[in-house]
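Action item from last meeting closed. Structure (367 res):
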């Protein structure tokens, strides 16, 4: 199946197809080193390489084009999960500065993030405040021209390698957004997850912080930022799922059993049909949400939630089917589908778990 059939869908403009193909060519030439045990070193290099190639400009933009970000994520995820991760985190980690930073903050951080010279992190979750973000207890107090932050942030991607952390904490006025330099936090407690990427628990002990935007507006900023990136998590899931389908197709055509190819057995064909259809459905929802936001300039709370939920849940199933079709090879350490099986899992949890997306969709329906 041509994984680029969606490039001529009406949701996309003529500039999108060449972009997706250029990223694909770049990824083929540059991502062999993007798999391995040392996720910190790999991601540091990936951020630099993505910056040099100019792709980070798409996710650090005053006028983000969600369709471009989604296509880049889809293509990067197809080739290497850490490449997608490094790309997306530069955008998520700097988005609040793009939305509400002062001119000085923008000038200081955004060009470096876009060039891949500074690594960004987004610190919202806490050990006791994940889905229930309002339960946040990290606090911020004014100290002259600056603020001082106290608290602990959990599951922070790029934790330990980031140059700065956009951090949310409770001030007198309500939840607010801050920039905290890496030297002012303790990110030494590293976290290892099923498909490792740089991650830490980040602790703030009177950490020096700069307010971003107005005090009390932090949660709104976080949600506006997530509004851009949530749809694109669906796109990353599509990239993983398309790779799994391609791996499965190659194997079932090559594997012989009972005097025929595995591909000739109807049970295999049924699986392949389900996999391809689930991917197309996820792509339709994902690029519709991106188009609504880019072209219709609409809030896409419901559509982004549907896209993220359907594409990530479908990708999990597609990848599981691919593992099954590969048999023992599907669980062999280092095989692409084995890697995908581990990489896809967290997408159903972060940036709003599936259950949270259901709550959002139902809330919009019942309005
Ligand atoms: C790989 C990874 C990277 C991450 N990166 C970051 C990052 O960079 N920055 C950051 O701030 N955070 C990050 N997170 C944290 C992520 O946002 C949280 O894990 C997520 O919000 C869920 O919170 P939790 O882990 O506390 O789970 P909980 O909130 O405890 O959720 C547990 C379960 O309860 C379910 N649930 C929630 N609401 C309802 C409901 N109304 N009804 C029924 N069930 C419900 C959830 O869906 C989930 O299944 C990351 C997490 C992971 C796994």
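Sequence:
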């Amino acid at each position: 199946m041509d994984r680029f059939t969606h490039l001529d869908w009406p949701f996309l403009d003529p500039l999108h197809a060449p972009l997706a193909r250029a990223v694909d060519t770049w990824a083929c030439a540059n991502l062999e080193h993007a798999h391995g045990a040392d996720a910190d070193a790999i991601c540091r290099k990936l951020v630099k390489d993505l910056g040099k190639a100019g792709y980070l400009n798409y996710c650090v933009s005053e006028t983000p084009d969600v369709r471009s970000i989604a296509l880049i994520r889809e293509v990067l995820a197809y080739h290497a999960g850490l490449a997608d991760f490094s790309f997306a985190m530069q955008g998520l980690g700097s988005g609040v500065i793009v939305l509400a930073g002062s001119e000085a903050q923008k000038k200081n951080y955004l060009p470096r993030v876009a060039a891949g010279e500074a690594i960004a992190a987004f610190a919202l979750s806490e050990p006791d405040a994940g889905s229930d973000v309002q339960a946040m207890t990290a606090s911020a107090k004014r100290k002259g021209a600056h603020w001082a932050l106290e608290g602990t942030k959990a599951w922070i991607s790029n934790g330990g390698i980031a140059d700065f952390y956009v951090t949310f904490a409770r001030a007198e006025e309500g939840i607010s957004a801050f920039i905290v330099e890496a030297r002012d936090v303790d990110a030494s407690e590293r976290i290892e997850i099923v498909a490792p990427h740089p991650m830490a628990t980040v602790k703030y002990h009177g950490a020096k912080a700069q307010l971003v935007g107005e005090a009390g507006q932090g949660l709104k900023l976080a949600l506006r930022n997530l509004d851009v990136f949530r749809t694109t998590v669906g796109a990353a899931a599509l990239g993983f799922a398309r790779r799994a389908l391609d791996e499965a197709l190659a194997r079932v055509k090559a594997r012989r059993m009972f005097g025929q190819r595995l591909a000739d057995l109807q049970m295999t064909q049924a699986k392949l049909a389900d996999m391809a259809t689930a991917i197309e459905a996820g792509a339709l929802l994902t690029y519709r949400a991106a188009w609504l936001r880019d072209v219709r300039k609409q809030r896409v709370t419901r559509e982004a939630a549907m896209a993220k939920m359907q594409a990530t849940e479908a990708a999990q199933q597609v990848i599981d089917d691919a593992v099954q079709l590969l048999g023992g090879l599907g669980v062999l350490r280092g095989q692409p589908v084995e890697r995908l099986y581990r990489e896809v899992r967290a997408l159903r949890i972060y940036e709003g778990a599936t259950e949270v997306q259901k709550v959002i969709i139902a809330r919009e329906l019942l309005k």
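Note appended to the action item: The chain is about 50% helix and 15% strand.
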